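Final report, Chapter 2: Outcomes

The project's central promise was a pipeline that accepts a single protein chain and returns its three-dimensional structure in a standardized token representation, suitable for archiving and comparison. That pipeline is now operational. To close this chapter, we reproduce one record exactly as it appears in the project archive, with the input sequence first and the structure output second.
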Amino acid sequence: MNNNFKYDEKIHRYFFNDQELPSVTQIVSNICNPFQPGNEWHLHRGSMIHLAINIFLSKKLNEESVDPRIRGYLESAKKAIKELNIHPVLIEAPLYHSLLLFAGTPDLLTDSNILIDWKSGGHTETSEPQLGGYASLLEASNYPVKKAYEITLDEKRYKIFEYKPHRCKSIFHAMLTIYNWKIKRRVNGKAE
């Protein structure tokens, strides 16, 4: 990782040479209908599910510490991990693209080059471009992506939505172009 790239975890913002970089989520939500954030509980639950999965994948999870309200989601993720034979290469690693100047934190890249985005709130229409942004970041960091999965979790099961990485990247790059155009117009004082 380049020493000029910094991720501020507290405020979830990315910087390269002291310039703030837009995130994959920021770009996609700016172009698509803005994400409809859930209430505080659902946002917190999603963060805790991601954290539990990450700690489990890192083989450091104390099963006794898992909140009963997210246990079913974690069990669904564990079932997916076992059945799909998932072995992580990267788990929530902040990355940036030095040429296209954006950043993000993919959920997971496996040893079989599968990009995985975990969802606990159900399938979303913005997953394809999000996965495209993450695939671009991974490939810019010399991690090839052969497949892209959105895995939705609920308390009883998981579902896989598979996307073609090339198509995902094309959609994301189109969004990035429009995002940059909108930002440039705003900076130059032109109405959108």
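Archive annotation: The chain has a mean pLDDT of 91.
This record, like all others produced under the grant, will remain available to the consortium after the project formally closes.
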